[in-house]
Design a protein that fits this description.
39% of the residues lie in helices and 20% in strands. By secondary structure, it is α+β, with helices and mostly antiparallel strands.
Amino acid sequence: MERIILHSDMNSFYANVECLYHPEIRDLPVAVGGNPEKRHGIILAKNQKAKEAGVKTGEVLWQARGKCPDLVIRAPNYQLYLRFSRLARKIYNRYSDQVEPFGLDEAWLDVTNSARIHGNGLVIAEKISRDIQEELGITVSIGVSWNKIFAKFGSDYKKPNAITVITRDNYPQIVWQQEVGDLLYVGPATKKKLLKYGIVTIGQLAETSVDFLVLQFGKMGAVLWRFANGLDDSSVKSFDEHYNGNERILKSIGNSITTPRDLKDLKDVKFIIYMLTESVAMRLRETGCYCLTVAIHVRNKELHSFTRQQKLAKPSDLTREIAEAAIALFENNYDFSSDIRSMGVRVTDLVPDSTPIQLDLFGNEELRVRQARLDETVDELRKRFGNLALRRAVTIGDQMSGLDPKKDHIIHPIGYF
């Protein structure tokens, strides 16, 4: 039986949720962005009116206001967006137990087994669209296909509030005619390289020799060739509503921040890494997970950036161990040829905190136990009295001391791979 895969994308998600709660701005161009005074002046999302005025996601606030002087900018409210994301998930679960998130506002659904009950893919998409609009007050665009990649393409093809069905018969006329950058995981750098070889459309990518693509892009070249030809057979993973009473296991947890001033030395960097790690580790413990990998993202004032990661010796949720790994990554990969504008700390390869850990006969396991108890006590105090109630000495005594990363965290989407 041919698979029926849906990809649902909530339109202008952050901005439309804000408009729901603020009726006075519903008919105005609205964007969700940061705080220019703290250099968080980036457009994160915009509604249809702002889009029509030329406002783009990712541009700085002054650029957006230059295009649209009457633009209303709201600060992000991630807890509210998480609530709507969970409500949408409950609607998806009416039609399938195979629901795989792709960020807060997107999800794949495999409705193959429920088609006999609810109707074909188009009918189910129409029902989901209706349910979300009537119950949540926002709209979705949905792609319907036999694989995840073309379903994702379909949800992007027409916006807002649209449904696109891509079949084995019509995909050459719909998918292959579009520019290659519209294919999932063809980013700006990959697109630029493909254009250099005269590969402009997805159809041209599909017709290119897979051996040539592997030669130019490595294993990812074969992946993109399969994507372009509709040969993706990856499954939609089942979504467990709870895991040991908590939200399902995430793929990663991370914080990043654009600092009020540039970071000029290792002391500054340690300050920011510990500040970010305090929040990352606390959320890791709240989720009931250990991490196996620590990653950092660094961006300097010339806007050049890099990401590095390393495996830990053993699974951990200890603030100190995660921070020390992040600091070591930085010291081994940066020479301060330029001051730093923003940094991020992320933990990945998450496993349940019930995972057995091999004890180190020659290490100090007693110290790790004491550290775990200390972290738990600090978590409880911060929950009661606020995130800044108890601080490490390394994060005190600077104009950045008042930063609260819990209010500026990035929720990393679940990666396709």
